[in-house]
Amino acid sequence: MPKRYDGVFFDVGGTLWRWPSGHTPAGVWARTLVGHGHAIAHSSIESALRDADARTRGIFPPTMEAQRAFFREYDRLVLSRLGLPADPALMEDVDRAFLPMSEPPRCFDDALSTLDRLRSEGYRLGIISNASHELPDSLREHNVAERMDAVTYSWEVGAEKPDPRIFQVALDRLGVRAERAVHVGNEYGKDVRGARAAGLTPILLDVQREAKETDCLIIKCLADIFRHL
Hints:
Layout: E1 7-10, E2 17-18, H1 25-35, H2 42-56, H3 64-81, H4 88-98, E3 106-107, H5 111-120, E4 124-129, H6 135-141, E5 150-153, H7 154-157, H8 164-174, E6 181-185, H9 188-198, E7 201-205, E8 217-219
Parallel strand pairs: 1-4, 1-6, 4-5, 6-7, 7-8
Antiparallel strand pairs: 2-3
Helix pairs in contact: 1-2, 1-4, 2-3, 3-4, 8-9
């Protein structure tokens, strides 16, 4: 029986791997602030992060040097919103805490075996991720890069999910048509809506079984993908 699809794309964070418990933006900021003598309510930190996100939305630093400058400005915005001075030592510690090696993510148990089986069955594999320029190194460190035919991420492309443009770049790189590709991700708004708008078949990974939307294919673990290919 001929295959319905030629290519399978994956989101990364929350799809191929998960971060340690508490490694959320607000959690990282809270721990670092306490280390510098600032005990600030979690809700205030979350509000400051939302404000900084809104002010920097649509900015995609093209190089690692530009990325460093971006994060310095982002940290300054957060601290200003919290009523704190732009302390260089604090900002350096915040940025260091967000590096992948500080609290490395861990691949889901079935991630690499699922990728290997897909490759053995002849599927072309790709990454579509909203991520910074650290992503390629992280993929190599977790033995994911070697299993991919193409990696596409937002800061490289200048567009982020759910924008159809990042999906189109990924399709072109993989050499597959949208109607012959699926995209697996854990966020409905970014992954499902974005893939659907670009013409791919979306598959929502719902590990915690919390999905409210049911108008798409849903899997509980990565290995379940074979039921839909």
